[in-house]
Amino acid sequence: MRGAHEDGRHAAARTGPPEAREPAPRSAAGRGGGVTSRDVARAAGVSQAAVSLVLGDKWRGRVSAAKADAVRAAARELDYRPNAAARTLRTGGTRTALLVVPALTNEFFAGVHAGAARAAAAHDFGVVLYPSPEGIGPARDPFAAAHTAVDGVIASSMATDAVRALRAGGLPLVMLDSDPADAGAVATVNADVADGMRQVARHLLELGHRRITHLAAAIDSWTFTARGRALADALIAVPGARLRTEPAELSVAGGLAAAQRALAGPAAARPTALVCDDDLLAAGALKAVRRLGLRVPYDVSVTGFDDLALATAVEPELTTVRLPAGTVGAAGMTALLDAVAGRGAESTTVPARLTVRTSTAPAPDAQRR
Amino acid sequence: MRGAHEDGRHAAARTGPPEAREPAPRSAAGRGGGVTSRDVARAAGVSQAAVSLVLGDKWRGRVSAAKADAVRAAARELDYRPNAAARTLRTGGTRTALLVVPALTNEFFAGVHAGAARAAAAHDFGVVLYPSPEGIGPARDPFAAAHTAVDGVIASSMATDAVRALRAGGLPLVMLDSDPADAGAVATVNADVADGMRQVARHLLELGHRRITHLAAAIDSWTFTARGRALADALIAVPGARLRTEPAELSVAGGLAAAQRALAGPAAARPTALVCDDDLLAAGALKAVRRLGLRVPYDVSVTGFDDLALATAVEPELTTVRLPAGTVGAAGMTALLDAVAGRGAESTTVPARLTVRTSTAPAPDAQRR
DNA sequence: ACGCTGAAGTGTTACGTATAACGTCGTAGG
DNA sequence: CCTACGACGTTATACGTAACACTTCAGCGT
User: Fold this and answer.
1) Is residue A215 part of a domain?
2) What is the pLDDT of residues A215-231, one digit of tens each?
3) Of A345, A358, B160, B368, which cross-links A335 as Cys (Cβ 3.0–4.6 Å)?
4) Residue A73 and residue A71: Cα distance in Å, rounded?
5) Is residue B46 part of a domain?
């Protein structure tokens, strides 16, 4: 059966020397991982096209059920793995998404990655992850190859320059932690940080706090701006409430320094609550309070944001806003997959909830209520 | 000289003004990222093969310097990006390494990733990262595609079942945190945890501690075994020294529980130092000590391991062993790249150093010295 | 008997790159 | 004057897959 067509096939195209005809398939036993769809076809007694149809699940009405079974059996038998490069070359699609975050050592972004990877895997997609371009240096553009290596991009707005480099790419782009009104992205996925901050404000107000200082991360990013505005909005209408803002470098040491500045001065003017943009800042604030000989939460209440592992490691444990990082990552990936598939992607806001622990207590000077 | 074989097509260009550009043969302006080496060839007036040679830096003696410059100029002009899939299909090499770690939310592994990615980027390699298979479920094998998608693998021994799936792959494999005598890997890269633990032991002994309890991570992994053995070896020969071991689930809560068990009983028999396999355990131990009404470090000293961000966030700050995660990742990647290139890869042990902070102090019962 | 339809397949092609194989044209060596 | 040879290029091909364009054949209504 085989070879019937081969004799005539090359007759015209062949100008070369009387080379010996290919005696051995040379394919099956060649390399370890080198079994191709043609090998499967040979084993199942069908054409390579049929293998592609069957394994691509597009065989209904094109291949008989019997042969389809034979193909699947042969594929399993030979442990056939489709060659990703060939498939990509043919279809133009890599089943891969690019995730761009500022740093994985930030636990929040590690969680985002985990959620995104899980959502991607459910659709047989992979995730590749580019570290901060700062870490790599400007000499090499890590995004040069993105167009050909990836079907779409999820990017945190905190990786600013990377995002700029990506804009021109023409790839579907989902933005994280970014202004929903931002153009250029097919969708935006945010944790509802504004609502989270409102819950913090309500919690502290109910505990009688009126002199509040906001330890604000000194990063020009939409999330932090939104947190600050939400806090201000929640306090502006409350009679007797006073909000101050203290910028802080985003680290434990930065929180310590900022809190020390915030707590300086006479006791009567001292804030009774420190609202921090991040759990790291809150951990620093805890230290500052203790170094002044004061106690959390009896003298000063402290709140965090994000609910990292840190929040329950410090003492007292932090009242903080839990941001579901995994959900954010998963929602971002879902939106991206929709966009890649041509369906409209929709922006999402995932809820954030205040988790009350032991770093907050009634304000020491609260008379009424 | 140019176009000798296709004069008919370009007839218009003979008299045309320099402005009369070829109106894009459907390729250049077609899709966003769709400029191929053939487009560059056309623009530079050479064959596609010449483009490949020049850009692959294999043109010496095959292409004139003038044409090579023209090719490079055209490539830059058109913003040509080689198609990774086509290149892979042709050469069989993806310039990509797979990193397998148990969880990125573990700060140590996030650091490993950062180091590996940096080292890879220096050689124009990318890193793809597979999350723990547990998170994905057994239905889908995330490693099925590895053979065709990746040139080599770096795996932490803590991702046990993943490693088993990879063994059969025939891909170069570098093991992290694994027994150096382990077969099957082309190289092993470890932090010198044994030496780190010896430094902990020496530090505590010099402070006069003799009753020591080891909070041991309840994970069957080479690193933790090595830590435990190193500690035991360092104490065995010291007269009067007593080592107990308390298994602990690897989390803050696990450390808390284990430390409470360790500290139960009469004060005279209580350990004066708790040596923890990990900073999370140490954070939990800190809490346990405080809940018993004791103080760190005056009543009980506590040491950690890894030097995570947590170590300086808690109070008191942890005396701990700093493991250079980034260096481990970079060394692993370097070894893997050597192996992929056919050069022999060498195993490495990167030094670990004790960082003394404020969670350790002289033993309360130390009479002499 | 005729054309039509749908099932069941196969042959062929194109994706973009790297490279082997093949030419051409001067020029140096005999 | 012939031959080798090196510089300079080009053509053709293969990598493995998916999909298009056909072909064959049976069933079926008219």
Assistant:
1) yes
2) 999 998 899 999 999 99
3) A345
4) 5
5) yes
Nearest chain B residue to A136, by CA = B118
Q: Both B104 and B34 in a single domain?
A: no
Q: Classify residue B314 by burial, with Cβ atoms within 10 Å: 0-12, 13-18, 19+.
A: buried
Regarding whether B287 and B198 lie in a shared domain, the answer is yes
Q: Over chain B, what is the mean pLDDT?
A: 85
* pLDDT one-digit tens code per residue, A82-114: 999 999 999 988 888 988 888 888 999 999 999
Q: Domains in chain A: how many in total?
A: 3
| Phi, psi values for residue B63, rounded to 5° | -135, 140
How far CA B148 is from CA of A72, A148, B186, B190, in Å, comes to 20, 16, 19, 28
pLDDT in tens, B8-41: 333 333 333 333 333 333 333 334 458 999 999 9
Is residue B71 scored above 80 in pLDDT?
Answer: yes
CB-based contacts of B178: which residues, under 8 Å, 6+ apart?
Answer: B156, B157, B185, B188, B190, B222
* CATH code, domain carrying B133: 3.40.50.2300
Q: Tell me the backbone φ, ψ of residue B313, rounded to 5 degrees.
A: -90, -30
Q: Within this chain, do residues B53 and B168 fall inside the same structural domain, yes or no?
A: no
In a domain, A11, yes or no: no
- Shortest CB distance from A148 goes to which of B85, B135, B309? B85
Instruction: Examine the pLDDT at A62 and tell me if it is beyond 50.
Output: yes
Instruction: Give, for B195, the enclosing helix (H) or strand (E).
Output: helix B193-206
Q: Is the pLDDT of residue B164 over 70?
A: no
Q: Tell me the CA–C1' distance in angstroms for A62 and D28.
A: 21
pLDDT attached to residue B161 = 66
Asked whether residue B359 is assigned to any structural domain, the reply reads no
**Whether residues A55 and A112 fall in one domain:** no
* Entry pTM: 0.86
Q: Clarify whether residues B225 and B235 are in a common domain.
A: yes
Alpha-carbon gap, residue A73 to A79, rounded angstroms: 10
In the structure, what pLDDT confidence band is assigned to residue B149 with cuts at 50, 70 and 90?
confident
Q: Return the nearest residue to C14, CA–C1'.
A: A90
Q: Are residues A282 and A240 in the same domain?
A: yes
Strand D nucleotides, any atom under 7 Å from protein beta carbons: they are 6-21
B310 shares a domain with B330: no
Q: Please state, as a whole number, how many other Cβ atoms lie within 10 Å of the Cβ of residue B25.
A: 12
The pLDDT assigned to A209 comes to: 97
Please state whether B368 falls in left (phi above 0), alpha (psi between -120 and 50) or beta. Answer: beta
If asked whether residues A317 and A283 sit together in one domain, one would say yes
Which helix (H) or strand (E) segment is B127 a member of?
A: strand B126-130
Question: Domain range holding B56?
Answer: 11-82
Q: Which two tokens stand for residue B195?
A: 């030496």
